[in-house]
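Shape matters. As here.
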Amino acid sequence: MNTKRSEELYSKAKNYFPGGVNSPVRAFRSVGGTPRFIAKGKGSKIWDADGNEFLDFCASWGPLINGHAHEDVVNAISTTAANGTSFGAPTELENHLAELILSNNPYIEKMRFVSSGTEAVMSAIRLARGASGRKKILKFEGCYHGHSDSLLVKAGSGLVTFGNTSSAGVPEEFVKETVVVPLDNEAAVEAAFKEFPNEIACVIIEPIPANNGLLLQRKEFLTFLRDICTRNGAYLLFDEVISGFRVGFTGAAGLYGIRPDIITYGKIIGGGLPVGAYGASAQLMSNISPEGGVYQAGTLSGNPVAMAAGIAQLSLCLQKDFYTNLEAKTKAFTATIRNYAAQKNYTLRIFETGSIFWIAFSNDEAIRTAEAIDPKSMEKFRVLYHYLLENGIYLGPSGYEVGFISSVHTEDELKRASEIFCAGLDRVFAS
């Protein structure tokens, strides 16, 4: 595969950006080699700067649930941009997207648009602290909630990939206000509330942790979190930046039938453009400025172009059987790989929920905690990753990252992709 142009661009980028990238997860540090510089995408495919074609399972890390450059989304963007890209003032499009979401989501009553998932979570944490009058937050090891200071404590995703448990530049005072406990451990949560009575403002969790493997949680554990928060006067915060609108229009809250106090969403609500949101009951959201004393603002919050793209994208997601069909395609794809690995007696599990999947080189029937992931298994992923890349399959460049299937992946494409995955497993276990 010719990679000359990507190599040239990467060499030049290292003069401009730390590590040659504007986000560490784009680097190939954990798998080796040169990041592919992407030139265009259409439907289920992307093409790099050298003209190589890939079937894409990264989907811009999830938000492109309807594929690249969907006609409805592109038309909405171009039409809106022609009338102006930003005003710093309200637009009708904000109302339209909010109504589309709120009228189809019984778990929140009011919301606030922001510009990223990190900003959404940061603002939601401030809301929980401001409304409760408490300082501490409880998070789980293996869940990633963006790069705000108080949440970069034993986080997942890129931090685990690079072998770190925290980030330089985070003051010790911030760390002291963040209580970190293991996932899937009721006793640890009970102990935290006992040690810090009346101090915990909220419990934040990815109800479907998907930044450090796909650590599918027991519904009983999530129900327990709902109950213990209620008993202790703490808010339950579901970070659905990945799972929201991915596993269903109402996300994990709807999938499990659990009502959190606050929910955060990410770029999927903007058709891939920079956007995020947080929502809660009308009463709780009344704490947000200008109604209440919890301040949060943003010049690009509710950006009209992002709002228009979000309306187009989420309208597609509301079509009949959209999520049922998407899940069926995902299950068929993963079943082929799973069955092949079982026939060959390969040490491999493939987990999926909705249209999210994750390959783990493990014999464990369930992996619910970060500690259960064998770091040595990443060497196997490295071999698999480069085989897939050389054969036209693009995944996020880390074995801790999940893959995504879009509505525009065809059955033929997925069948061919599963065959390439299986051949890749032969390469892994032969080596």
Q: What stands out?
A: The domain at 4-69+320-430 is CATH 3.90.1150.10 (Aspartate Aminotransferase, domain 1).
